[in-house]
Write a sequence for this structure.
């Protein structure tokens, strides 16, 4: 068949397909432009193959190529039931994933909590050590934040709810930023994640040790114990996700390094999804519960212990049954 | 355009001379993707950066009026715009942020399908590493040494930044009577003759005649034929190949 004939015969069809594509590209919801799309798309593909096989001019092939490309984009959307997936992720998939990756999670936890605890004890024993990791100005700032005297005077009245909002925003920004950094730098053969886990552990440990040492523990510990459960775990998990990337580059196994990285990244981005969820919860607790001053310190410790137990139980036991609720 | 159609379908295709990627789909056709290079991608990023900056400044002044509550919202917005601007636009707007839209780029998966949440999140989180140690040095280096211009985030997420092809205008063949080619032309040669006829408007008349003159001998036209006539002969053959309107 000559090119011109072919063109004349199918031109209307191509026009219609193009119009349908415009409609589909504009709207994301359901509409009638989708009915019979697959058949039309296949016909366009067939026309394209024919046109190439018969050596028609590139001015005919190129528009067909573009139509096929746009049709492909519409047909092969990675669409999913977002709500159902989120639910099954929270209820089962995320804790399962953490358990599957237990080696990296254990390594990250060891590094982060280990450096935190050791540094805390060291600073408690040798108070001057704090100035080797935190600058004196920052130490002063920390002290004024948790000074029991200042607290009793300045915060006699409950913090206004607008301040809670301010702090919520700040915590989200700050904590997720740290978690993302810890994760992303894992791409540098895992070194970045190792560094950030260790560094953040040192910093937090030093501050905790110092505040306890100078006698501000009574305001510091009740404040941090609640949200710490989610926040610290999340940072450790983000580190584990970063280490996964780095490990894929170091020991790709039977895959090529690029391919191994892609496979590992698919897993670790799901870990990061869980981390974001944890940090969101942590920010809520930090802004609305931890900041309350009226509950007794004992209450705060009890709630804090319950939250730590909850996180541990969630990561260890959730999703163990074969049929996760979906 | 690489001449894929001239090859038997089971033979390995030759590597194209340009940067195009061929992606075979389940329908048995090849999609042609054109990966975008460093310059256009940096420009797109710069535009996005400007837009984000302007947005934040505007929000800052707007929300500042609401006191601490406003500042809290502003910090949330800062977080959203900082980490989610790219992801939201890429997933909800067919792989295009405003900057990419302006430069005619889009993000797709390696197999040409539209970019999804996890891939987009991954490539934008890993941007942090691409920015190291300063001014996107790692990303630029990775981009320049990769055949499809991928930065590290693209490598891990399995994504590709490609050009969106603008629709092309169809040229009209010169109005000359159609003739049958004096020798049997292979498919490849037929396409060359057709392309020549369609694209001669972009050549100067002298150059078009010169090119047509080269073909006098292979097409077995009289050796003393003047080049203008050779040109119209060639156009006639093209018209014959394309078929009458």
């Amino acid at each position: 068949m000559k090119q011109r004939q072919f063109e004349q015969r199918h031109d209307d069809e191509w026009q219609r397909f193009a119009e349908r594509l415009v409609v589909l590209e504009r709207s994301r919801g359901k509409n009638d432009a989708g009915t019979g799309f697959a058949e039309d798309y296949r016909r366009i593909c067939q026309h394209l193959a024919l046109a190439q096989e018969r050596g028609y001019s590139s001015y005919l092939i190129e528009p067909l190529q573009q139509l096929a490309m746009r049709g492909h984009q519409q047909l092969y959307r990675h669409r999913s039931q977002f709500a159902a997936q989120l639910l099954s992720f929270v209820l089962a998939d995320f804790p399962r994933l953490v358990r599957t990756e237990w080696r990296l999670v254990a390594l990250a936890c060891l590094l982060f909590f280990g450096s935190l605890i050791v540094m805390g004890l060291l600073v408690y024993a040798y108070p001057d050590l704090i100035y080797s990791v935190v600058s004196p100005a920052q130490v002063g700032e920390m002290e004024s934040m948790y000074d029991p005297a200042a607290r009793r005077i300045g915060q006699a009245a409950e913090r206004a709810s607008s301040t809670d909002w301010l702090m919520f925003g700040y915590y989200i920004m700050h904590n997720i930023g740290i978690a993302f950094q810890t994760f992303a730098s894992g791409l540098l053969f895992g070194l970045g994640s190792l560094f950030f886990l260790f560094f953040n552990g040192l910093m937090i440990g030093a501050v905790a040790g110092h505040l306890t040492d100078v006698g501000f523990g009574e305001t510091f510990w009740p404040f941090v114990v609640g949200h710490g459960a989610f926040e610290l775990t999340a940072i450790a998990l983000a580190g584990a996700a970063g280490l996964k990337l780095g490990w894929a580059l170091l020991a790709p196994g039977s895959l090529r390094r690029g391919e191994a990285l892609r496979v590992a990244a698919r897993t670790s981005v799901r870990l990061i999804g869980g981390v974001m969820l944890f940090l969101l919860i942590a920010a809520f607790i930090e802004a609305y519960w931890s900041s309350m001053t009226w509950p007794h310190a004992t209450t705060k410790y009890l709630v804090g212990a319950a939250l730590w137990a909850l996180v541990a139980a969630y990561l260890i036991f959730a999703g163990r049954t074969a049929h996760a609720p979906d | 355009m690489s001449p894929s159609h001239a090859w038997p379908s089971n033979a390995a295709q030759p590597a194209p001379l340009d940067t195009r990627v061929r992606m075979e789909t389940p329908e048995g056709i090849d999609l042609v993707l054109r990966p975008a290079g460093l310059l256009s991608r940096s420009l797109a990023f710069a535009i996005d950066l400007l837009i984000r900056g302007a947005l934040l400044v505007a929000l800052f002044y707007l929300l500042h009026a609401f006191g601490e509550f406003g500042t809290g919202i502003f910090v949330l917005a800062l977080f959203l715009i900082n980490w989610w601007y790219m992801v939201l636009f890429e997933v909800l707007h067919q792989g295009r942020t405003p900057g990419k839209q302006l430069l005619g780029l889009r993000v797709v998966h390696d197999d040409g399908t539209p970019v999804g949440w996890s891939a987009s999140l991954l490539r934008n989180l890993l941007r942090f590493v691409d920015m190291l140690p300063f001014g996107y040095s790692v990303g630029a280096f990775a981009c320049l040494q990769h055949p499809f211009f991928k930065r590290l985030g693209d490598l891990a997420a399995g994504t590709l930044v490609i050009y969106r092809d603008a629709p092309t205008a169809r040229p009209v063949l010169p109005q000359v009577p159609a003739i049958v080619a004096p020798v049997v032309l292979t498919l490849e040669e037929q396409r060359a003759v057709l392309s020549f006829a369609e694209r001669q408007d972009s050549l100067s008349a002298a150059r078009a005649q010169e090119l047509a003159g080269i073909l006098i001998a292979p097409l077995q036209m009289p050796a003393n034929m003047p080049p203008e006539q050779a040109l119209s002969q060639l156009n006639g053959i093209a018209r014959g190949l394309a078929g009458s309107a």
